[in-house]
Specification:
alpha+beta
């Protein structure tokens, strides 16, 4: 079953890019995250229900960077030879055993260091998707320690009150979603309600 598979590997080839997302080379995942990190492609996914709940995951304790921190529904990297479209759907199946239509929102660059363990240095593409409520997810324990559906207001409180328990990219992405993309998310939820009718 999905939850028994290891889906992350230190030697998986990530795509190095410049600030405009032009490919500059390739490097293994472990080397791309050493020190200050090498700029590489990444993506983050937020799954919403029609009643404005969003799926959060707590990262596995085996993760070298930000273990046991709460984060968005799913995030990872396209591998060498993969498009964004291929990568986001692969990862949803690997981590959550679900697959849904996704909408690309925006791309941003950030760098965040996790002590001496290494850094994320990513050009990250952010996607949203809608799922029926309730939806069954089959989380992969090699990637995810726990998960929960939260109303958006509760996510706001989590970030405001427990910043030391959430990943830095999740904070940046959520704040941008709440400031710039509320209408897009409302439209997504409305489409979910029409589909369920």
């Amino acid at each position: 079953m999905n939850k028994h598979k290891t889906v992350s590997f230190d030697n998986e080839p990530l795509i190095l890019v410049d600030a405009d997302d032009n490919v500059t080379g390739y490097e293994t995942k472990v080397k791309a995250h050493l020190g200050a990190g090498l700029l590489h492609r990444a993506f983050s996914i937020f799954l919403f229900t029609e009643n404005e709940q969003v799926l959060l995951q707590q990262r596995s304790g085996k993760k070298p960077l930000w273990p046991m921190y709460w984060s968005n529904s799913c995030c990872s990297h396209p591998r060498r030879g993969e498009t964004y479209e291929q990568a986001v759907h692969r990862r949803l199946r690997e981590e959550l055993a679900v697959d849904v239509d996704l909408k690309f929102l925006y791309r941003f660059q950030y760098q965040a260091r996790f002590g001496d363990a290494g850094s994320e240095h990513e050009l990250c593409s952010v996607f949203i998707g809608k799922v029926p409520a309730p939806v069954r997810v089959d989380v992969n324990p090699s990637e995810i320690a726990a998960w929960r559906w939260l109303p958006s207001a509760d996510v706001d409180r989590l970030i405001a009150e427990e910043r030391d328990r959430v990943t830095p990219w999740f904070v940046m992405e959520w704040q941008r979603l709440r400031s710039d993309f509320r209408a897009v998310i409302r439209e997504l939820r409305a489409q979910a309600m029409i589909s369920a009718a």
